[in-house]
Write a structure and sequence with these properties.
Layout (H helix, E strand, L loop, with lengths): L5 E4 L9 H12 L5 H8 L7 H12 L7 H16 L6 H7 L4 E5 L3 H11 L2 H4 L3 E3 L11 H10 L6 E5 L2 H9 L3 E5 L9 H7 L4 E3 L5 H8 L2
Parallel strand pairs: 1-2, 1-4, 2-3, 4-5, 5-6
Helix pairs in contact: 1-4
GO molecular function: hydrolase activity; metal ion binding
Family: Belongs to the HAD-like hydrolase superfamily. CbbY/CbbZ/Gph/YieH family.
Protein name: HAD family hydrolase
Length: 222
Amino acid sequence: MASIDLLISDCDGVIVDSEIISHRVLFEALSLHVPAEQLHAALEGTFGLTVPSIIDLIEKRFDLTMPETFDVDLRRQSEKVVAEEVQAIPGVREALLAIKLPLAVASNSRLHNVQASLQRAGLTERVAGNIFCAEMVRSPKPAPDVYLLAAERMGVAPGHCLVVEDSPTGVLAARTAGMQVIGFTGASHIPAGHDQALRELGVAAVINDMRDLPATVEALAR
């Protein structure tokens, strides 16, 4: 097995417990255009996708055209509410400080949102500016682009990278990039049976508590 030389973490749902907040704002906005019951079904499994990708999915599924400013207004509202309410995942700061590998963050969120999340979690210095976002690449997750960019910029081959992800979207991106993945299922938005869904996508391990991350990384790095 290849040595592990770089740890790459997703942000939303791994470092901060933001997915459930963003999803609530998204649902409230879309429910003005789609009946709630149908919307619940349509949004199942969309955690980890970018907002434009979700809007495109809803428009196609329900043959809708959202107002011209819908995307911008939704992003602004989501960023405002997340900034007011978001909390760090319990134990994430201690876990990432305990792991001595170089650390990068790869996210479908915008750069300034990731920076704010890292500040909230007390991890700005630990990440040291090694942030890679969907706006920096051609295609967001589930495409592998953002993970490949992180590996390239950090000077580490993809096969020597270990990723921490919470969503099938992110796991698929990292696995397509040729990286090992630890699935994290401890965020508030995670549904029952999610660990099995991640295992079916080929994660090397699944944890539900960030206190287990250092030992899991150490075991996979042997």
